[in-house]
UniProtKB/TrEMBL annotation:
Claim: Transcription is one of the keywords in the record: yes
Upper classification of the organism: Bacteria, Pseudomonadati, Pseudomonadota, Alphaproteobacteria, Hyphomicrobiales
Annotated transmembrane regions: none
Protein's organism: Pseudorhizobium pelagicum
UniProt GO molecular function: DNA binding
Any one Pfam family match given in the protein's UniProt record, by short name: Peptidase_S24
SUPFAM superfamilies on file: lambda repressor-like DNA-binding domains (SSF47413), LexA/Signal peptidase (SSF51306)
The keyword Transcription is assigned to this record: yes
Protein's name in the database: DNA-binding protein
Alphabetic keyword roster: DNA-binding, Transcription, Transcription regulation
Record domain Peptidase S24/S26A/S26B/S26C: where: 94-215
Domain of life: Bacteria
Length: 219
């Protein structure tokens, strides 16, 4: 079963197989040497931190290992994770519904996926390899006609955003919305609605928890 513990165990086992420490494995992969340290596997608030698919891909390349070899260290691997464990397989990313995204516990302070309750979805390797990328499933018709109920949006937190980008915004009150970024200053952000029946929004940045760019959509 995939879990936070078993994925980190697989990385430790891979390091041991190549006679490396966790720091040595990260260094060989061109990552920060502290990336895989045990102290980095939980956040300051106790939330679980997962190795990204990009980090694992770099480790596999650096050690000449295959995905199958990596997964061999994880018993009973499967694609559906009821406890929300983030998968290491290249081409799979965490998935969450828009309706659930506004609740607490699913994102860290930077807007990256965290905690329990995530599912997974298979997607092309290119977006899946970006660090921290996740998917949100559209629910309802508030984003028509651009996005329909059931469409899946691939979101990249931490990416630079600019005018005209389609973005997902979460407010500090827990509202999550997909909009078009029209203008951002040091104090405010102006958002254009995808659905003409919904009003545009102008928010003070102090009201915004995070902004993440939409980089791909399954329609």
């Amino acid at each position: 079963m995939l879990s936070h513990e078993t994925i980190w165990h697989a990385l430790d086992a891979l390091a041991e197989r190549h006679k490396l420490t966790a720091s040595g494995l990260a260094r060989r992969a061109g990552l920060d040497p502290t990336s895989f340290n045990k102290s980095k596997r939980h956040g300051p608030d106790g939330r679980l931190r997962w190795p990204s698919t990009e980090s694992i891909a770099k480790v596999l390349e650096a050690t000449g290992s295959s995905v199958e070899q990596f997964l061999s260290y994880i018993p009973s691997s499967r694609s559906h994770l009821p406890e929300g464990a983030f998968p290491p397989q290249i081409g799979t990313i965490p998935l969450l519904g828009f309706a659930q995204a506004g609740a607490g516990g699913f994102f860290d302070d930077g807007g990256f996926p965290a905690g329990q309750g995530w599912d997974v979805v298979e997607f092309p390797a290119s977006p899946a390899r970006k660090s921290g990328v996740y998917a949100l499933e559209v629910q309802g018709d508030s984003m028509m006609p651009l996005y329909r109920d059931g469409d899946v949006l691939i979101v990249e937190p931490g990416a630079q955003v600019r005018r005209g980008d389609r973005v997902v915004v979460k407010t500090r009150e827990g509202e999550v919305m997909a909009k078009i970024l029209m203008r951002q200053t040091a104090k405010t952000i102006d958002l254009h609605s995808l659905n003409p029946e919904h009003s545009n929004r102008s928010l003070d940045l102090v009201e915004v928890e995070w902004v993440a760019r939409i980089i791909w959509a399954s329609q």
